[in-house]
């Protein structure tokens, strides 16, 4: 989250204007600021002696006015960018369930589509590395789940909301599904061993019972409640044997920086457990919970009691 926010600030000079087109950085006005040290080739600067003191002070006041005007215009431009982004997010919210929630520009302060989606996809490997090292005490939660639950070489696995490929199993025949072509493009570079990549909605992808295992990792906190339940139910529909859902520990308390890039996380924290309970049939599945990283990452493991009942 912190990396995403930092990259957002660095990208402000290229942020789109109200027309939706990226703005080129504005050139500095001529004679806007004096150099830190006087240049030797400026004979026109008045010397500091009695008769010219007034002219020199006038010169400085004019330069200070030019600098203040320039800074004010830049502050106005940045404020306009933020206002445009805020209005865009509000318009998105008003669309409700009819909108594609994965296009919400507030997600990780970038969104998942367009040129901002490319920035997001390129930032994910760095932010994931930092989170694993700093927040999870060096534990790679995805790798730990892969080694304990997905080691069979011959199994077929569908990884829903796969992002750039961190959650794709290392063993078996893996199909990666995501709504963001940007994420899948970066995944292709990171994980060329993945069998297939599909741009599709995880809520409705695939045929029933077409995979041995379905995984859904670190995605449910990035979607509204209705989509969260649909994704879990679809994972259960796709899998013949097992479903693994991993995400933020429900007792976690996010800080303000995290909240700035996670528009759905508070709803997730409040309702994930009840959503999980409401998504499966206990006559067909068993559910076990495991905290992969204590007070940080929880896994919900569904194992089928019988197939076709």
Report on the architecture of this protein.
The chain has 309 residues and is an alpha/beta fold. It has a domain at 114-304: Vaccinia Virus protein VP39 (Rossmann fold, 3-Layer(aba) Sandwich). It is built from eight helices and seven strands. It has helices at 2-10, 53-95, 114-135, 141-149, 181-190, 225-238, 256-260, 265-279; strands at 156-160, 173-178, 196-199, 211-217, 239-248, 285-293, 297-304. The protein has a seven-stranded mixed sheet, sandwiched between helices. A hairpin with a 3-residue loop joins β6 (285-293) and β7 (297-304). α1 runs antiparallel to α3 and α6 (225-238) packs parallel to α8. The longest helix has 43 residues, at 53-95. The radius of gyration is 26 Å and the shape is elongated. This is Methyltransferase type 11 domain-containing protein. GO terms for molecular function: S-adenosylmethionine-dependent methyltransferase activity. InterPro entries: Methyltransf_11, SAM-dependent_MTases_sf. It comes from Emiliania huxleyi (strain CCMP1516). Pfam families: Methyltransf_11.
């Amino acid at each position: 989250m912190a990396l995403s926010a930092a990259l957002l600030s660095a990208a402000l000079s290229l942020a789109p204007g109200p027309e939706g087109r990226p703005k080129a950085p504005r050139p500095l006005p001529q004679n806007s600021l004096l150099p830190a040290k006087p240049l030797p080739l400026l004979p026109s600067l008045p010397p500091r002696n009695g008769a010219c003191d007034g002219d020199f002070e006038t010169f400085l006041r004019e330069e200070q006015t030019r600098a203040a005007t320039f800074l004010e215009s830049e502050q106005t431009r940045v404020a306009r960018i933020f206002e445009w982004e805020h209005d865009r997010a509000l318009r998105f919210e008003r669309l409700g369930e009819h909108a594609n929630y994965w296009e919400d520009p507030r997600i990780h302060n970038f969104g998942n589509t367009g040129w901002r989606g490319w920035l997001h996809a390129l930032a994910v490997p760095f932010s994931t590395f930092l989170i694993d090292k700093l927040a999870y005490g060096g534990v790679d939660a995805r790798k730990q789940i892969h080694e304990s639950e997905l080691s069979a070489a011959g199994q077929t696995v569908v990884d829903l909301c796969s992002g750039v490929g961190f959650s794709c199993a290392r063993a078996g025949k893996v199909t990666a599904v995501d709504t963001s072509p940007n994420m899948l493009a970066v995944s292709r570079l990171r994980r060329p061993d993945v069998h297939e990549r599909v741009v599709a909605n995880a809520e409705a992808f695939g045929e029933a019972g077409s995979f041995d295992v379905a995984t859904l990792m670190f995605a449910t906190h990035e979607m509204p409640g209705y989509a969260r339940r649909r994704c879990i139910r679809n994972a259960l529909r796709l899998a013949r044997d097992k479903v693994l859902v991993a995400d933020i520990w429900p007792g976690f308390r996010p800080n303000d920086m995290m909240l700035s890039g996670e528009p759905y996380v508070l709803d997730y924290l409040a309702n994930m457990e009840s959503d999980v309970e409401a998504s499966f049939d206990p006559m067909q599945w068993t559910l076990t919970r495991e905290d992969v990283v204590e007070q940080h990452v929880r896994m919900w493991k569904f194992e089928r009691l019988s197939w076709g009942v």
